[in-house]
């Protein structure tokens, strides 16, 4: 199984950015934990972080040729990233949206996601584990599809 992992704007600052909200783990540490899990399960990850929506969109378009699924933390782009949403819809790959914090326990303007409707699900509020839970969900969905001969 091949998974594109996308980290959106400002996630490169994890570890020092508002640690009371996002924790103290760096993006590199999160990626290392995902890579460790992936290696143990025969999953290949391609991990990209960008502060630019167009870079994320290009990565999604390219994933159409090699990926089985997409794990995405769009950051604040979940609120207004309509072009990102359209890219996810266009490639028609199973996707899971993840967030470190519980956006519903924060400011009201964070509570609507334009990305969620084109994803299999949304996992949030579990810190770095939101990524791991999202990856596990995509893996389970892929295994089920493979068992049904649809992977």
Salient structural properties:
single chain, 151 residues, 5-stranded parallel sheet, Rossmann fold, alpha/beta, globular, 6 helices, 41% helix
The string of secondary-structure elements, in order, is EHHEHEHHEEH
Shape: globular
CATH topology (level 3) name: Rossmann fold
Give me the secondary-structure category.
alpha/beta
Content of β-strand? 15-25%
Which CATH architecture? 3-Layer(aba) Sandwich
Helix amount, in percent? 40-55%
Spatial separation of the terminal alpha carbons: 9 Å
Give the CATH class. Answer: Alpha Beta
List the strand order in the largest sheet: 2-1-3-4-5
What's the β-strand tally? 5
Q: Major sheet, described briefly?
A: 5 strands, parallel
The value of Rg in angstroms is 14 Å
Model regions low in confidence, pLDDT < 50 over at least 5 residues: none
What's the rounded overall pLDDT mean? 94
- Overall number of domains: 1
Determine the oligomeric state from the structure. single chain
Count up the helices. Answer: 6
CATH superfamily: Dehydroquinase, class II
EC number: 4.2.1.10
GO biological process, one term: amino acid biosynthetic process
Binding site for substrate: 73, 100-101, 110
Site (Transition state stabilizer): 17
Helix/strand layout:
Layout: E1 2-7, H1 19-22, H2 27-40, E2 44-49, H3 53-63, E3 69-73, H4 77-80, H5 82-91, E4 95-99, E5 121-124, H6 129-147
Parallel strand pairs: 1-2, 1-3, 3-4, 4-5
Kindly describe this structure.
The chain is an alpha/beta fold. It has six helices and five strands; from the N terminus they run E-H-H-E-H-E-H-H-E-E-H. A five-stranded parallel beta sheet has the order 2-1-3-4-5, with helices on both faces. The radius of gyration is 14 Å and the shape is globular. The mean pLDDT is 94. Its EC number is 4.2.1.10.
């Amino acid at each position: 199984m091949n998974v594109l992992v996308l980290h959106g704007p400002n996630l490169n600052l994890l570890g020092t950015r508002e640690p009371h909200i996002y924790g103290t783990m760096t993006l590199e540490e999160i990626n290392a934990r995902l890579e460790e899990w992936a290696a143990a399960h025969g999953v290949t990850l391609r991990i990209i972080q960008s502060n630019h929506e167009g870079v994320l969109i290009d990565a999604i378009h390219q994933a159409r040729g090699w990926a089985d699924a997409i794990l995405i933390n769009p950051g604040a782009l979940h609120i207004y990233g309509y072009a990102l949403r359209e890219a996810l819809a266009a490639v028609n790959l199973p996707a899971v949206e993840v967030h470190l914090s519980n956006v519903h326990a924060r400011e009201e303007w964070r509570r609507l996601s334009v990305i969620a409707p084109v994803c299999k699900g949304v996992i949030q509020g579990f810190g770095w584990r939101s990524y791991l839970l999202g990856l596990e969900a995509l893996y389970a969905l892929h295994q089920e599809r493979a068992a049904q001969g649809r992977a």
